[in-house]
């Protein structure tokens, strides 16, 4: 089996190691990012929904940056939303701040009943920038 090429954002490696997963893995020119939530440095949820959504994107962007990417490199997004009927309007106020201009990535939204105390999770796949000479 090949060694996984794991990407860790600065300052959060212990959190991922404690929870036994990788924040992102590079493979075949793509970056596969684990679902990101609005967690504080200690892993606890940001209590307010709008702030939690922003923090999820901050956490996501830290991983993308560590891999040499931006949200513009994201090609596929999966959103997990607890109680989308009551939270979607708030989330759509925050998403455009981070989403950028069209064309946008593909999107799958999934309503869920529980996210370990969080209201929102975002999982993405990004195309890694080409290395010099590629």
Automatic annotation (TrEMBL):
Pfam families with a match to the protein in the record: Ribonuc_L-PSP
InterPro entries the record matches: RutC-like_sf, YjgF/YER057c/UK114, YjgH-like
Listed PANTHER family: 2-IMINOBUTANOATE/2-IMINOPROPANOATE DEAMINASE RIDA, RUTC FAMILY PROTEIN YJGH
Protein name as catalogued: RidA family protein
Native organism: Salinicola endophyticus
Lineage of source species: Bacteria, Pseudomonadati, Pseudomonadota, Gammaproteobacteria, Oceanospirillales
């Amino acid at each position: 089996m090949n060694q996984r090429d794991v990407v860790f954002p600065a300052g959060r490696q212990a959190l991922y190691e404690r929870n036994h997963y990788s924040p992102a893995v590079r493979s075949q020119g793509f970056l596969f990012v684990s679902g990101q939530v609005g967690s504080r440095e200690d892993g606890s949820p940001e209590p307010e929904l709008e702030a939690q959504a922003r923090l999820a994107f901050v956490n996501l962007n830290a991983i993308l940056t560590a891999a040499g990417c931006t949200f513009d490199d994201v090609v596929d997004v999966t959103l997990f939303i607890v109680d989308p009927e009551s939270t979607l309007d708030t989330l759509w106020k925050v998403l455009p701040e981070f989403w950028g201009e069209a064309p946008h990535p593909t999107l799958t939204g999934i309503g869920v009943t529980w996210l370990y105390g969080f209201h929102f999770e975002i999982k993405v796949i990004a195309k890694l920038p080409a290395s010099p000479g590629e």
